Amino acid sequence: MTPKTFLFYTIIPLFLLASCKDTTNAKNVAVQPQKRKVVDSVSVEDKKKKEKEKFVLTEDNAIEFFFNYNKTLKENTVTLTTNFGDITIELFDDVPYHKANFIYLTRKGYFNDTYFHRIVKNFIIQGGNADNVETGRKRGQIGRYLLPPDTRKGHKHHRGTVSMPSSEIDNPHMLASPFEFFIVVTKPGSYHLDGDYTPFGKVISGMDIVDKINSQPVGQGDWPIQNIYILNAKVTK
């Protein structure tokens, strides 16, 4: 074998080996950033989804939230389907926080499977609570907050008025308990409530159902002897 032939057979394999290594590295560099990019994209979307799911209302954010939420609303009517029939409520536009709160809770499904849990004869029926685990769970997911009274809009507690009770826990300013509501049954109204509680709507259909509920027998604490269910609540207009 001549020296030239020896060099040819020695150099060519080395050249081919180097070329193969370069090609493999080039493939690795091209693929790896694409994998990292996909992982990062999924991570960001998951993070946004988790943050949205974790949102809860508090004393600090409730007013700002309902102020902005009310701006998005075009509807002002909610229908409650009970085991006695339907009650349709028209919400007042000039009581924005309480209106927005009621629609928000309705859309979250909060009122579904709650009760009219308090009946005071010829006075009120009160709803939005229940002695079951599911209602407590829903309250916990929505948040813990109260609403300030809004009693200066001229709305009075006429028969059929829907109003919001105040919280009974350390509440000198009569802040409203957002998960509950009551409907006035008294003829022509219960005007001694004016100034202390916030009317935020009125019954426009189903007062006969309200009266029927108000006539049901009650036990201790004004709790109906037989549960009166709000089977479903939905925004209807």
UniProtKB/TrEMBL annotation:
<dbReference type="InterPro" id="IPR029000">
    <property type="entry name" value="Cyclophilin-like_dom_sf"/>
</dbReference>
<dbReference type="InterPro" id="IPR020892">
    <property type="entry name" value="Cyclophilin-type_PPIase_CS"/>
</dbReference>
<feature type="region of interest" description="Disordered">
    <location>
        <begin position="148"/>
        <end position="167"/>
    </location>
</feature>
<dbReference type="Pfam" id="PF00160">
    <property type="entry name" value="Pro_isomerase"/>
</dbReference>
<keyword id="KW-0697">Rotamase</keyword>
<dbReference type="InterPro" id="IPR044666">
    <property type="entry name" value="Cyclophilin_A-like"/>
</dbReference>
<feature type="domain" description="PPIase cyclophilin-type">
    <location>
        <begin position="85"/>
        <end position="235"/>
    </location>
</feature>
<comment type="function">
    <text>PPIases accelerate the folding of proteins. It catalyzes the cis-trans isomerization of proline imidic peptide bonds in oligopeptides.</text>
</comment>
<keyword id="KW-0413">Isomerase</keyword>
<dbReference type="InterPro" id="IPR002130">
    <property type="entry name" value="Cyclophilin-type_PPIase_dom"/>
</dbReference>
<protein>
    <recommendedName>
        <fullName>Peptidyl-prolyl cis-trans isomerase</fullName>
        <ecNumber>5.2.1.8</ecNumber>
    </recommendedName>
</protein>
<comment type="similarity">
    <text>Belongs to the cyclophilin-type PPIase family.</text>
</comment>
<dbReference type="GO" id="GO:0003755">
    <property type="term" value="F:peptidyl-prolyl cis-trans isomerase activity"/>
</dbReference>
